[in-house]
Structure formats: C-alpha cells, structure tokens
C-alpha cells in the first residue's frame, strides 16, 4: 500500500529543520551509507546523523510522524529503524534500488520520504515507486510524507535545477504482512468515520473489539 499524507509538518517546522541542517560542514557523501549495487547508483548528500543539530531535526520529524493518526494507523510502527536527511543538488539522483531488508539488525517493512522542499524549488527529482507494475511519480509538497513497502523498487530522478531536501526513513511495523496492514488501516478509517458521525457506542465498541483482536492475531 502506497500512501501520501499532506501537512505532517508545518511550513514553519520545515523552515526550522532546513535552517538547522544548513551548515555545509554537516553534509557527507551519500555513498557512505549505501550497500551493494545501490552504491553505484546513489549520488546525493547526507546530513551527519551524529551531529546534534541533525539529531534534533530528526527527533522533531519522528515525533510529528508518531503523533499523526493516519500515519500511525497505516504504518503500525513498532520502531523507527533509521532516519536520515538528504540533499539532492543539480545533477544528483538515486537510480533504481530496493531498500535493505534489515538495518541495524531490525526488519524494514516500510519506507518513507518526508518532503522538506516545495516542488517549485527544484526541477526533476521525482520519487518514482513501482507499485505492482505501475510507476507512481511523486513530487510532494513541503511537509508531506509518502509511505510505501520497503520491498518496492524505487528511485529519485535527476535534479536538473535547484535543491531537493527530504528526510527518509524505515519502519519495523507491528504488523508484518502488507495485506494485513492494509486491512487494518481500512478498519481504522471506518472507526474514525463512525466516531465522527456519532454512531451508537455499541456498534463502535464491537468494531473496536474486532480491531483489537485482529491486532493480536496479525501482530508480531
């Protein structure tokens, strides 16, 4: 399941993050963290994850994602495996690749990109994801996030002008199977709709009990 969620971060939060990671000394060659064949197709810059300013920026992004009800319902995160901030200048790209199945010893079920630049600030640089044989090309607005299965073949097309700033990351989900997560997400949406429409509490509670039991059944 591929999901695009708008306004996970505000414009002010994006500005603050961009300012925090602006010093040139914070940036490293992105190839340093690429493995195997991905190293040959990766051309970008990556913020030093050990720097306090970068750690603070990543913590803010993680907190915003964790607090967003739609993101939480879709991802069912057990943990954020890893997050990093990357930068694509003119001529930079990341060719077709699939993310590693394990990072730091943790399974990667879901990948995400949080866009920190507006699409008008750069040309090219689309995130292209193979979605069951169909390619989705995404240039999200600043503060939006794209969530997709880590098994998906994907790439970042060449930036031909401007600068593309984004945060990428990986999640170990409480629900291992993609189909089970999609099923539970639809149930979460239905529960939210019932609550908004003032459905009888008895109906809401029965569906909530079903949701809880499915979490027990599907969960790791």
Could you describe the 3D structure shown?
By secondary structure, the protein is of the alpha+beta class. The protein folds into two domains: 3-173, q2cbj1_9rhob like domain (Jelly Rolls, Sandwich), CATH 2.60.120.620; 178-218. 34% of the residues lie in helices and 33% in strands. It has helices at residues 11-20, 38-41, 52-67, 69-75, 178-197, 201-218; strands at 3-5, 27-29, 42-43, 45-47, 77-88, 93-97, 102-103, 106-107, 110-115, 122-124, 127-131, 134-138, 145-149, 154-156, 159-162, 164-173. The strands form four sheets. Strands 1-13-9-16-5-4-2 form a seven-stranded antiparallel sheet. A hairpin with a 2-residue loop joins strand 7 and strand 8. Helix 1 (11-20) packs antiparallel against helix 3 and helix 5 (178-197) packs antiparallel against helix 6. The relative contact order is 0.19.
CATH class identity of the largest domain: Mainly Beta
Over the alpha carbons, how many angstroms does the gyration radius reach?
18 Å
Strand order of the largest sheet: 1-13-9-16-5-4-2
Estimated share of beta-strand residues: 25-35%
What is the fold named in CATH at topology level of the largest domain? Jelly Rolls
How would a crystallographer describe the biggest sheet?
7 strands, antiparallel
Distance between the termini: 19 Å
CATH architecture classification name of the largest domain: Sandwich
| CATH superfamily heading of the largest domain | q2cbj1_9rhob like domain
Shape: globular
Low-confidence stretches: none
Give the averaged pLDDT, no decimals: 94
> By helix and strand content, what is the structural category?
alpha+beta
What share of the residues lie within helices?
25-40%
């Amino acid at each position: 399941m591929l999901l695009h969620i708008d306004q996970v971060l505000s414009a002010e939060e994006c500005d603050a993050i961009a300012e925090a990671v602006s010093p040139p000394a914070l940036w490293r060659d992105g190839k340093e963290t690429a493995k195997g064949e991905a190293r040959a197709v990766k051309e970008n810059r990556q913020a030093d994850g050990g720097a306090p300013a970068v750690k603070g920026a990543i913590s803010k992004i993680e907190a915003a994602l964790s607090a967003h009800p739609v993101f939480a319902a879709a991802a069912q995160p057990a943990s954020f495996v890893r997050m990093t901030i990357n930068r694509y200048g003119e001529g930079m790209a990341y060719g077709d690749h699939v993310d590693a199945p394990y990072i730091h010893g943790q399974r990667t079920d879901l990948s995400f990109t949080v866009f920190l630049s507006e699409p008008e600030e750069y040309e090219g640089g689309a995130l292209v994801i193979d979605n069951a044989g169909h390619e989705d090309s995404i240039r999200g607005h600043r503060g939006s996030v794209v969530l997709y299965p880590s098994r998906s073949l994907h790439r970042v097309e060449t930036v031909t002008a401007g600068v593309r700033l984004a945060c990428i990351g990986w999640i170990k989900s409480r629900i291992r199977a993609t189909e089970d997560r999609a099923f539970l997400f639809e149930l979460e949406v239905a529960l939210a709709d019932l609550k908004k429409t003032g459905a009888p509490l008895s109906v809401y509670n029965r569906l909530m009990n079903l949701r809880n039991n499915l979490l027990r059944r599907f969960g790791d």
